[in-house]
Amino acid sequence: MFAALGVRTVQDLLDLFPFRIDDFSRIRKLRHLEPEEKVTVAGRVFSVAVIPSMRGRALRVGVSDGTGTCYLVWYNMTYLSKQFYRGQQIVASGKVEWRRNSWEMAHPRWEATGELSSGDLIVPIYHTTAGLSSATISRIVRQALSIYAHLIDECIPGELVRRQGLLSQRQAYVNIHCPPSAEIWEKARKTLAFREVLFLQLALLLMKRQNQEAKPTKPYSRFDLPEAFVRSLPFRLTDAQVRTIDEIRNDLASGRTMNRLLQGDVGSGKTVAAVWSLLAAVANGYQGALLVPTEVLARQHFQTVEEFTRGMARVGFLSGSQGTREKRLTLQELAGGSIDILVGTHAMLEPDVRWAKLGLVVTDEQHRFGVRQRLRLSYDSDAPHMLVMSATPIPRSLAITLFGDLDLSVIDELPQGRKPVRTRVLEEGSRHLAYERVRKELAAGRQAYVVCPLIREGKSGRRSAQEVFDELRTGYLRGFSIGLAHGDMPRDKLAETMQGFVDGKIQVLVATTVIEVGVDVKNATCMVVEGAESFGLATLHQLRGRAGRGDRQSYCFMISSREAEGESAERLKALETLHDGFSVAELDLRQRGPGQFFGLKQHGAGEINIQDLGVSEDILYAARQEAKNLVDSLEGGVQPPFELSSLLSKVNARFGNLLMHARSR
Ligand code: ADP
Ligand code: MG
Hints:
Blueprint (H helix, E strand, L loop, with lengths): L9 H5 L5 E4 L13 E17 L2 E9 L4 E7 L13 E11 L2 E5 L2 E4 L9 E4 L8 H15 L9 H6 L5 H9 L4 H32 L10 H9 L6 H15 L5 E6 L5 H14 L3 E5 L3 H14 L6 E4 L5 H13 L4 E4 L13 E6 L7 H10 L4 E6 L5 H7 L4 E5 L10 E6 L3 H13 L3 E5 L13 H10 L7 E4 L5 H12 L5 E4 L12 E6 L7 H8 L10 E6 L5 H12 L3 H12 L24 H16 L9 H13 L3 H7 L1
Parallel strand pairs: 4-6, 9-14, 9-15, 10-12, 10-13, 11-12, 13-14, 16-21, 17-19, 17-20, 18-19, 20-21
Antiparallel strand pairs: 1-8, 2-3, 2-5, 3-4, 5-6, 5-7
Helix pairs in contact: 4-5, 5-19, 5-20, 6-8, 7-8, 16-18
The site of magnesium ion (MG) has 4 residues, from helix 8.
C-alpha cells in the first residue's frame, strides 16, 4: 500500500510529509459557540439521518460533547453517510450557524479521531491511498522516526542554517511529523522546503554552468525548410509567434547551445514554433525530437507534425505501448538516420534509443516532466539544442527562478478571432444548468468534456469520473454517446477512447485531468468541471482551454461542490472574468504560493512532493540566492570544503549524477 504512495524505503517514508495539520488544541466547547464563527469542535456522533431540504437531500450528523450539540450538514452528498456511525468520536471545523433551533455546521472539514488524548491535539494529515488512512501513516512514520531519527544528518552548511533561521534536519523531520505546536510545524516545513528548493537551484545552476562550458555547436545556417513550412500554413503567424521564432533562430545560428523556455497560453500556437525548430535541425543535417508527456498527446502531435512537414522530413513515432517489432524498426531507422524527426513519449529517454545525429529536442508541456528528466536528456546526448514549452504560464519573475538555466520566450497573444471561453461557476444545486447547455451543444453537433478530480470514489467526498460517468449515462445525458478516460485505464483502451472523441464518434468525454495537456478537438465547445474547487486556477484555465479551440463561442461550467466554503467559490469566480493565462497564474501564485509551479514529478522515488511543503516565494528567492553564493564559491578548481562537498553529493544523488557528468566533460 505504501508503494502506491511512492514509498519504498524508510527514507521515502520519512519524506512523506503531512500536507496539513489539524490543530485541535483550540477545540471549542459546544456550549460556547457563537453564530457565524469558524471553529473546531469535538464530540461523539449521536445521530445520522438523511432528510429532504430546500437545497436538496441533506445528510445531518448530530454531535454532542457533553456541554451541547451541533449538527454537521452536507447537501447532495448523502453517500457520505456510510462514513458515520453512532458513538463515533470525531472532530470537525467549519462555520457554525444557528438554524432550525440548533447549531449547524455545513460541509465541515472533519476527521474520525478515536478518543483524543492530550498528546494528539495536533494531528498531521497525510495524503492517503486505499487501505491506508492518515492516522495509520502517522503511526508508522512515528515508529520509523523513533528508530531512525538519530541517523538523519545535516546536509546544509551550519552557517546557512543559522542565517536563514532554519531547524536542523533532524529537528525538522521530527517536528513536521510530530509537531508540538502549529508554529514549530511551520518552521519544520520551512526548513524542508528550503532544502528542496536549495537542491533544485543548485542542480539548475550547476547545469547552467556546465552548459556554458560545453563546446560550441556548429551554427545553423540553413533555414529553407522552416521558411517553406511557414509559407505553407493556412494562416498568418501572430506577431508573438514571429518574435519567438526570431529568438529561436538567433539561438540556433549563434553557435551556442540553445536552452529556451517557451511559454504561451493554451491555444496560442506553440506547436508552430516547435515544428519550425525541428525543421531547422533537419535543414542543417540533424535529427529533431519532440518529447511529449502522454501517449494520447504524442499520437496527436505525431499526426500534426507529419501533416505540417509532409515532403520535407520523415517523421517517426515512439511510445511505450508500441509492439516490440514496430519499436525495433523505429529504433533501427533512428540510428540509421532515415528518421528526421521523432515524436514520442518518455520511451525516447530509454538507454536503448540511439540517434544518428540528434541536434535539437523540443519538450512539450514541460510542467508534466520532472526536473530530473529534463536534466537527463540534456546530459546524456551531446548537448543538443533544447526548447521546452509550457502552457502553464508562470509569472516572469518566478519563471526565471524556477528555470534559471533557461532563456525565456513568451507567446502572449492568441490567434485572431479566438473567443474567450464563457465561464460560469455554479453551485452543486445548479448543476442542471450546465448540462442543459451541454445537451444544446451536443444537439447542434458539437462535443463536450466533463472533467472530474478523481478516478474512483474517495473518502474525501470529491466527485469521481466513474461515478459521474455512470450518473450521466442514465441521467442528464441519456441517449448521447459518452466515453470515459482516465490514467488508470489500459493504455490502448485510453488511446481508443481518445481517438473516438477526436473522430467525433464519442460525443461526451468524461475524464480526469489526463486531458489537461494539449488535446486539440476543435469541435468540442463545452466543458463541465465537477468538483472544481479541487483544482488550482492555473489548472482550471488550462483545462478550459481544451474547449474553445475553434472560432465558435464555447462554454465552461465550474461546479463547486463545497457550497458552504464561500472562499473557494469566490476563488473560482475570478475565472469568469480573467481570460489571460498570465493573470490567472499571478492570482494563483498569490493565493496558493509557488509550489504548484514546480513541475517536479510527484511520484518518482526520492523526489519530494514539494507542493505539500507550502513553499513561499520568500523561501524560493532566499534559497536561490544561497545556491548562487554556494556555486560561486566553487570557482577555481579548488576542492570544496567538506560541508559543501557533502551537500553537493546529496544534490548529485537526487538529480542523477549531475556532477559526475559535469566532471567527465
Ligand atoms: P498550444 O500553444 O496550446 O500548443 P497549438 O499549437 O495546439 O496551441 O495551436 C492551437 C490551434 O491554433 C491549432 O489548431 C493551430 O493550428 C492553430 N494556430 C496556431 N497558430 C495560429 C495562427 N497564427 N493563426 C490561426 N490559427 C493558429
Ligand atoms: Mg500544445
